[in-house]
Write a structure and sequence with these properties.
single chain; 223 residues; alpha/beta; Rossmann fold; DNA polymerase, domain 1; 2 domains; 6-stranded parallel sheet; 9 helices; HAD-like_sf; HAD hydrolase-like protein; HAD_2; HAD-like_hydrolase_sf
Length: 223
């Protein structure tokens, strides 16, 4: 039985690539630097932010970027330009919880980029049991060891878990850790043919399709 559903945040739980593209270019503008192209942003999407920035803006002062980013990030959050979780996605999480499954987040975001979603008054409270990010994991996707802390702390076995993500790197991490993987293609940033088919257990067109997809994965075990 699938006991734990582990969910990626960006372009899986909420669509963030477009907003993040604007945010990063906003910070670059404040530094007096030219904007990056959308193609470069998509090519580096899913990477740890500061690891991606030298490709997004060659020669960028990473220290200065890191200083300016948090305030700009908060502005975008306050304006509702980032991390808006649609009601239908929240309903999907509710179905998973009602089915007795534990919902966890695993993201490559820094702690400061995810902490607002873990606040007790956030819409995820009561739906998501825990979150794993740069602040409490030693490794980053696509390294399969990104799941080490989650598995150790929760006691779930890889066979009891499924990871839901939007990138080939998500699939590599999950497969290497022995987890099943569901590709969520809602953002349109990635196509299914970009994934290693041997690592994809199932694919969904939109996040609300997730509960039914997981029920299907569990169905053979019921017979």
């Amino acid at each position: 039985m699938i006991r734990a559903v582990i969910v990626d945040v960006d372009d899986t739980l909420c669509m963030t690539e477009a907003g993040s593209f604007d945010l990063v270019n906003d910070v670059l503008a404040r530094m007096g630097r030219p904007p990056m192209s959308r193609a470069v942003h998509k090519a580096t999407w899913g990477e740890v932010l500061l690891d991606a920035m030298p490709r997004r803006s060659p020669g960028v002062d990473l220290h200065r970027f890191a200083e300016l980013f948090p305030a700009a990030h908060q502005e975008y959050l306050a304006d509702g330009r980032l991390d808006v979780i649609p009601p239908e996605n929240l309903a999907a999480l509710d179905k998973l919880v009602l089915a007795g499954r534990t919902v966890l987040l695993l993201t490559s975001r820094a702690e400061a980029e995810i902490e607002h979603m873990l606040a007790p008054d956030h819409v995820l409270a009561g739906r998501v049991t825990g979150a794993y990010h740069q602040g409490n994991t030693r490794f980053r996707k696509p390294d399969p060891r990104a799941f080490d802390e989650l598995l150790a702390e929760t006691g779930f076995t890889p066979a009891e878990c499924v990871y839901v993500g939007d990138s080939p790197g998500d699939a590599v991490a999950a497969g290497g850790a022995g987890l099943r993987f569901i590709a969520c293609l809602q953002s349109g940033v990635r196509r299914l043919d970009e994934f290693d088919p041997s690592l994809v257990t199932a694919a969904i067109e939109a996040f609300p399709d997730l509960p039914a997809a997981i029920d299907q994965l569990d169905a053979p075990a019921a017979h």
